[in-house]
Design brief:
The chain has six helices and eleven strands. By secondary structure, it is an alpha/beta fold.
Length: 243
């Protein structure tokens, strides 16, 4: 499978997707027809127009999945699928409702590029369980696309020394996840991404890099260019309380 999984779509001082434009162009290769999945946000037409504007300089034609009565019917003509960011609960609910879980999985397995950003990156994981979002709607299942066998936490934020915030840090929430599940979680900081292809998985983006959490182990830091292919061989164990 060919995957490009962005932590975020907009970086400070940059336009939409500008910070990753070179990586996106390289990942697209000769792809010129992109199916955009806009359901993480409420304004589907406006969101699709924004994406079409961003991809126009790359010579890519964008079609919104919401424009067809049966969105899965648009997949065969697509060289790439882009699932955009927003609320991941709303997005996953729509993917189930429109029968796109198996359909997208099959199209990517057949060679189409999967491009995800934020909530779209969450969708590439086995489940929704490591999202940061509020559950504004209830999906029929937490099961997502499962394009990778590990979990990702986009927009990962490090604890701030001396902060007076009394809620859980992101690291604490991931620790709670590991009390009930035995699955690696990769915290992708802003401006970073994962690129998968030919059985390899590499980390790209800004120098802040990413941090990998495993049950019962200390977190491990990785910088741009790090090889993370071993994560593709894992067997996730959900609902497996720590004994």
């Amino acid at each position: 499978m060919r995957l490009l999984l962005l932590s975020n779509s907009t970086a400070p001082g940059h336009g939409y997707l500008d910070h990753a434009r070179a990586e996106i162009a390289d990942a697209l290769g000769g792809a010129r027809r992109l199916l955009f999945v806009p359901w993480a946000q409420a304004d589907h037409d406006g969101y699709t127009a924004r994406v079409a504007e961003a991809f126009a300089p790359l010579g890519v034609e964008v079609t919104g999945a919401h424009t067809a009565g049966r969105p899965a019917s648009l997949l065969d003509a697509a060289d790439a699928v882009f699932v955009g960011g927003g609320n991941s609960f709303r997005l996953l609910t729509a993917l189930h409702r429109h029968g796109l879980i198996d359909a997208i999985r099959a199209r990517v397995a057949a060679g189409a590029l999967y491009l995800g950003s934020s909530a779209g990156t969450n969708m590439a994981c086995p489940t929704l369980r490591t999202t940061n979002d509020m559950p504004i709607v209830q999906p029929p299942s937490f099961g997502a696309l499962g394009l990778v066998p590990f979990q990702i936490n986009p927009h990962y934020l490090d604890p701030v020394p001396g902060s007076t915030h009394m809620g859980e840090t992101r690291a604490q929430r991931i620790k709670e996840f590991h009390e009930e599940n035995d699955v690696p979680v990769l915290g992708l900081r802003e401006g970073t991404w994962l690129r998968a292809g030919d059985g390899r998985l590499t980390l790209g983006g800004v120098s802040a890099g990413a941090v990998l959490f495993r049950r019962g182990q200390e977190p491990v830091e990785y910088g741009p260019g790090a090889e993370l292919s071993e994560l593709l061989a894992g067997e996730p164990a959900f609902d497996s309380p720590q004994g």
